[in-house]
């Protein structure tokens, strides 16, 4: 393999563990805290998880390791979208497991949950693991989005575990994957398989967090990567002074990524989906707000700017999500083929016009034609519009252009509005993990093994106090059921980990809200630059503005 100088250097990086995990596995004791309850719907969650509900919170401490001696064969999977640091979770898990006993085995099941169901795996060795230390990506074993949730799947997984003598499974994933980890843990306990299940909190979207999990891994590196790019664009905009840049960033169901990038770069505009939903804003209102910023800046002679748009924004606009729901109905089942067979856009438009309510047709008619067509082109395997594929960065640029045209005609706008569009998502998901994510992920993996060795089941590996230097981090575990509540999913009430949306009364949003009026008019850009891996800790090891503000 050809290695870049940075890759060679990163192989040699020694991730920092929390203080209490530094003395070696034989010197890690455990302290059990209070019994736990789920965040809501306690009775219903308890009824669904009779074997794993209400367990105690765990903190590791410096002291004698009292875990029973046992040979461990651990299986690990990566689940869902890539997030920087996933490799280090596996490396931390491997190192702890081998430090406890050289005969312990780590199996990597390939391609996500499918690997566990269809028994596709590799056994990790030192040589194999060493190629992936402190690197981005999930290519060590691959990932997948199969949901591990049915009794049939669990039965297959149980067979695979029995075949290899697997004692524990580690699931590295987001809120849905860890919900499934909790269900699998309960199944394993109810069926006396002896297999433990431990989760690790992953997702660049940042929406797997709560009072116990301060951040999901990958959010730090991904947002730093996007912020570097946004800062570079801001500097270009401020140099050329001729374009408004509309930048969509990943983050499907929550706007944490957009908010963090805005805190890092101080753009003129940043939309926050949760606010749009709370204020029931319409597309037209949002476009008007952006047009106000364009006009105010133009009046100051600044015909340029930067707007950040979260990927999931359209789903937060009430009138738009209603339109999408109606389109999904309109094209359900056979009707897609009927629609596709229509010869031209005019006849397709007629079909649409007859199928939508007057209210939704009005919204559809506001959309630029190319975006309107996108709603009918891209369907997911369940026949739904793939909202994340809608080019919302273009949508808002076009809607703003329309507003400004009208203002020009009315004599209230006299400036220029030329746009560029960008989408930053995949650019950040496999970046070399920052020092923070390298350390945090390695710690999560190491800690996951400690939970296994002490016999815990249905826990999420928890490393907290992470806005402080790693020495002060606190390692432990939290029953996943503590993070759960009942939610309506596909027409059924299901126990799920509560997804963390941007809190409009939280400190990160409040800070943004206090400053955004000024940023909308003045050029107040900040340029974070590239992630630094070597140098002073205050440059290289600091984590996100979101976490800094949340932790005060
Ligand atoms: P996870 O929730 O699985 O971590 O993935 C998040 C994400 O990166 C989103 O930001 C994005 O919408 C999605 O994955 C894209 O995934 P895919 O490329 O599989 O469509």
Describe the structure.
There is one protein chain. This protein has helices spanning 5-11, 42-48, 86-100, 113-117, 126-130, 151-164, 175-190, 219-240, 256-265, 273-278, 283-299, 313-316, 318-330, 335-341, 345-355, 358-366, 369-377, 392-409, 426-429, 435-453, 507-521, 537-540, 545-550, and strands at 28-35, 56-62, 73-79, 105-109, 121-123, 143-144, 168-173, 196-201, 244-249, 269-270, 305-310, 419-424, 459-464, 474-479, 484-489, 492-497. The protein is of the alpha/beta class. Helix 7 (175-190) links the parallel strand 7 and strand 8. Helix 13 packs across helix 16 (358-366). The protein is globular, with a radius of gyration of 25 Å. The mean pLDDT is 95. Bound molecules: 1,6-di-O-phosphono-beta-D-fructofuranose.
Topology:
Layout: H1 5-11, E1 28-35, H2 42-48, E2 56-62, E3 73-79, H3 86-100, E4 105-109, H4 113-117, E5 121-123, H5 126-130, E6 143-144, H6 151-164, E7 168-173, H7 175-190, E8 196-201, H8 219-240, E9 244-249, H9 256-265, E10 269-270, H10 273-278, H11 283-299, E11 305-310, H12 313-316, H13 318-330, H14 335-341, H15 345-355, H16 358-366, H17 369-377, H18 392-409, E12 419-424, H19 426-429, H20 435-453, E13 459-464, E14 474-479, E15 484-489, E16 492-497, H21 507-521, H22 537-540, H23 545-550
Helix pairs in contact: 3-20, 8-9, 9-21, 11-18, 13-16
Bound molecules: 1,6-di-O-phosphono-beta-D-fructofuranose.
């Amino acid at each position: 393999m050809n290695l870049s100088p940075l890759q060679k250097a990163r192989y040699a990086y020694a991730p920092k563990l929390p203080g209490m995990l530094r003395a070696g596995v034989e010197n890690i004791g455990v302290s059990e805290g209070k019994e736990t309850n789920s965040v809501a719907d306690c009775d219903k969650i308890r009824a669904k998880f009779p074997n794993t509900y209400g367990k105690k919170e765990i903190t590791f401490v410096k002291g004698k390791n009292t875990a029973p001696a046992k040979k461990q064969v651990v299986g690990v999977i990566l689940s869902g979208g890539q997030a920087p640091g996933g490799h280090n979770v596996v490396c931390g898990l491997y190192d702890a497991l081998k430090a406890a006993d050289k005969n312990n085995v780590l199996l990597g099941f390939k391609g996500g949950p499918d690997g566990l169901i269809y028994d596709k795996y590799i056994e990790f060795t030192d040589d194999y693991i060493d190629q992936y230390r402190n690197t981005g990506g999930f290519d060590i074993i691959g990932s997948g989005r199969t949901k591990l949730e049915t009794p049939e799947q669990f039965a297959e997984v149980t067979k695979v575990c029995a075949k290899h003598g697997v004692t524990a499974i580690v699931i590295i994933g987001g809120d849905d994957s860890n919900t499934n980890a909790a269900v699998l843990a309960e199944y394993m306990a109810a069926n006396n398989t002896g297999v433990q299940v431990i989760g690790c909190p992953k997702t660049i979207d940042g929406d797997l967090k709560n009072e116990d999990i301060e951040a999901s891994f990958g959010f730090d590196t991904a947002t730093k990567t996007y912020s570097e790019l946004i800062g570079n664009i801001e500097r270009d905009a401020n140099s050329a002074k001729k374009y408004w840049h509309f930048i969509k960033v990943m983050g499907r169901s929550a706007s944490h990524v957009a908010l963090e990038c805005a805190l890092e770069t101080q753009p003129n505009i940043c939309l926050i989906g949760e606010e749009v939903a709370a204020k029931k804003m319409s597309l037209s209102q949002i476009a008007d707000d952006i047009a106000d910023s364009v006009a105010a800046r133009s009046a100051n002679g600044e015909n340029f700017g930067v707007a950040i748009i979260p990927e999931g924004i359209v789903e937060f606009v009430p009138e738009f999500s209603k339109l999408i729901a109606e389109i999904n109905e309109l094209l359900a089942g056979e009707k897609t083929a009927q629609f596709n067979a229509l010869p031209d856009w005019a006849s397709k438009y007629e079909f649409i016009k007859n199928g939508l309510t007057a209210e939704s047709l009005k919204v559809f008619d506001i959309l630029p034609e190319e975006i309107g067509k996108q709603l009918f082109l891209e369907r997911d395997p369940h026949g739904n519009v793939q909202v994340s594929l809608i080019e919302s960065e273009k949508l808002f640029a076009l809607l703003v252009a329309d507003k400004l045209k009208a203002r020009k005609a009315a004599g209230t706008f006299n400036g220029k509005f030329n746009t560029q569009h960008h989408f930053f998502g995949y650019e950040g998901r496999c970046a070399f993990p920052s020092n923070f994510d390298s350390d945090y992920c390695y710690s999560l993996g190491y800690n996951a093994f400690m939970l296994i060795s002490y016999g815990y089941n249905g826990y999420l590996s928890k490393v907290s106090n992470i806005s402080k230097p790693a020495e002060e981090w606190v390692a432990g575990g939290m029953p996943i059921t503590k993070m759960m509540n009942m939610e309506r999913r596909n027409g059924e009430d299901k126990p799920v980990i509560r997804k963390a949306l941007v809190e409009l009364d939280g400190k990160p949003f409040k800070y943004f809200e206090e400053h955004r009026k000024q940023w909308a008019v003045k050029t107040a850009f900040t340029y974070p630059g590239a992630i630094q891996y070597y140098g002073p800790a205050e440059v290289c090891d600091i984590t996100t503005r979101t976490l800094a503000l949340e932790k005060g």
